[in-house]
Amino acid sequence: MEMPFEIFTSLIFSLLGDLAVGLPRTATMFFVLSFNCFCIVNCGESLGIMFNTLFKHSDFAVNLTSAIISISTLMAGVVSLNVPAFLQAFNHLSPLKWAIGNLAPYSMQGLTFTCDASQLVNGSCPIQTGVQALQLYNLNASPGLNIMALGICTIGYRLVSYLLLKAIKMHWSWKKR
C-alpha cells in the first residue's frame, strides 16, 4: 500500500534534490536519483521491520536501525575510502554502497575543476576532472551494474524482512497450540 507514496516522494525528492544540489539536470540523473531514494527508503523500512520483529522494545529497534544505517553511510565509499576486508564484505549488503556507486559516475562525468593559487600543487590542480575524482574514490565502476545491485539489494531486504516476520509469526502460532 505504501508503494505509490514511496514512488511519489522519491520523485519529489529527486526534483528538489537535483535543483538544490546542482546535479546535472538530465532525465537520467533525475530517474537514477529517484530510484536511489526509493530503494534506500524501502531498505530502511525493511530493516525497521526486521528489528521490530526481533525485539519487543520499539525504541531499541529504532536505535539499532539508526545505528546500522549510520555505519552504512560512513562505509558507503565517500567518507571512508579504505574499509578493512571484513567490513567491506558487510558493505556489499548496504544499499548505500550501491546507490553511491551508481550516482557518482552519472553526476561526475564531464566535470572539470579549477583551483585558486593557494590550492595548486606543482603548478596544477590535484584533481582536474570528474573522472579523476571517481578514480580517487574507486567509484569508476559501471553505474548500470550498481543500479542492478541496488535493485537486487532492495528486493533481498524486503524478502528477508517478510520471511523473518512470517517465521516469527509461525513460531508463535505453533506455541499457542
Q: Which band does the percent of strand residues land in?
A: under 5%
- The percentage helix is over 70%
The assigned structural class equals mainly alpha
Oligomer: single chain
For the report, how would you describe the main beta sheet? none
Report the uncertain regions.
none
Number of domains: 1
Number of helices in the DSSP assignment: 7
In round numbers, the mean pLDDT is: 87
Order of helices and strands: HHHHHHH
What's the gyration radius in Å? 20 Å
Structure in a nutshell:
The protein has 177 residues and is mostly helical.
SSE diagram, text form:
Layout: H1 3-21, H2 27-54, H3 58-75, H4 85-91, H5 95-108, H6 130-136, H7 143-175
Helix pairs in contact: 1-2, 2-3, 2-5, 2-7, 5-6, 5-7
Task: Give your account of this protein's structure.
This protein has helices at residues 3-21, 27-54, 58-75, 85-91, 95-108, 130-136, 143-175. The protein is an all-alpha fold and 177 residues long. The mean pLDDT is 87. The protein has one domain. The chain is 71% helix and 0% strand. The protein contains seven helices and no strands.
